[in-house]
Amino acid sequence: MRGGGLVAFPTETVYGLGANALDKAAVKSIYAAKGRPSDNPLIVHIAKKEDFAPLVREITPKAQALIDAFFPAPLTIILPKSDLIGSVVSGGLGTVAVRMPQNETARAVIAAAGVPIAAPSANTSGKPSPTNAQYVYEDMNGRIDAIVDGGECEFGVESTVITLAGETPVILRPGAVTQEMLEAVIGRVELSPAVLNELAENETAASPGMKYKHYAPKARIILVEGSRDNYERFVNMQRDCAALCFEGDNITIPKVTYGAEDNALSQSHEIFSALRRLDEIGAKKAYARAPEKSGVGMAVYNRLIRAAAFCVLNLTKPFTIGLTGLTGAGKGYVCERLEARGYRILSTDLYARRAVEKNSPLLGILAGEFGQDIIENGELNRALLAGRAFADSAKTARLNEIMHPEIIKMCRADASCPCVLDASQLFESGADALCSRLLCVSAPEELRLKRIIERDGITEQQARQRMGAQLSEETLESGADYVIINDGRDINSQLDEFINNYL
Hints:
The protein has 18 helices and 22 strands. With about 500 residues, the protein is of the alpha/beta class. A hairpin with a 6-residue loop joins β8 and β9 (about 170-175). α8 (about 265-280) packs parallel to α9 (about 295-305), α11 packs across α14 and α12 runs antiparallel to α14 (about 395-415). It is elongated.
């Protein structure tokens, strides 16, 4: 390290790839070895608390309080940098990130080198961080000078990063030192929006681990939020994929576990090794069961959401897929294909009929709006109601105001994961917000017109009136995650593409 070389060494978090932080050429070689973007700042590691002061302009009272309370620890503190720190280490920023590792081997290496050590994780850029020397060797053999083998890392996720460079302390990357622990020492601490969300366009990464995609294996990761039951039901019906789950989860497809559901420290210890094991078993796609977003679990969630490139499937929503489409597009056939794949279909058309069965309370409301004569012997004259309700947009909107809430309420009561909400007025009813993914079925206008006339036995004028009562084709398609074109093209291959890319 003193001679400008690159050495991987263990810490309590992950293995670091170290170089003399005061040697510009040595620091540049870190970026080259990792294939790391040069605007991604590095953390400077020190062996003793007194080594901190020369690296920063000033140790503020809050910084000193954290140093006194935690160092050595899996905690990185960001402050305005001194002139000792070059722009290569800081990623061009006016700040520097500093930490004193808890791991005794790490501190011994830094002390022996006699210089502060700039060290990101010892993996090629974007891959899961290494938690043992073997993983470092697999990534870095031939790229660096040496590896210090210190066995398995204790925590398994990188240090907590907190910036004290602004008015309010902000966590930029969660780790084993939690927000609650920090607030107990220095008061209010905010969590950066970038912990759970992508950086805004042109936003600078103020800390390592803030890039769009990070910590990722070769396998495509989908982060799944929801109960254990919903996760198991959904994942077990999938094909040609794997599960990244907790110990004890009842999974029938190939799986890799990463700790216990009720033990966030076990999750953090295992997560990066588990991501690498997905590649070892040849997984091309994996559904990762999401941990709790609290305490150390927040750190694990942060790593997973970046490994998944922010692809999250939210099974806490009542409907897995919201299916909509223009009338006559052929949603019914798509429903049949989804049902054959194991999805339960909830058709709003069927629930709409149930909602206005004989003596339903809704009948009186409809009669008050559209005329008492639409009720005959306690039953709804559907044709008469349709003729009046679709006569103009205001009447159509009023019918929707009455019907939609009750229909969706009934669908929610019957929903069970995984299911499809088949709703021609998915967006008009607001039910799109209750669906994990949105699928639209479309077809050319003249083909739809022909289908409607044949299906319903109505005139062209009546068919066009119904077509005109829907949202525009552009609105439906722009709101969907995926659009199936039902004009004779193969529906199954389109469904395969939708499921592969969005589920």
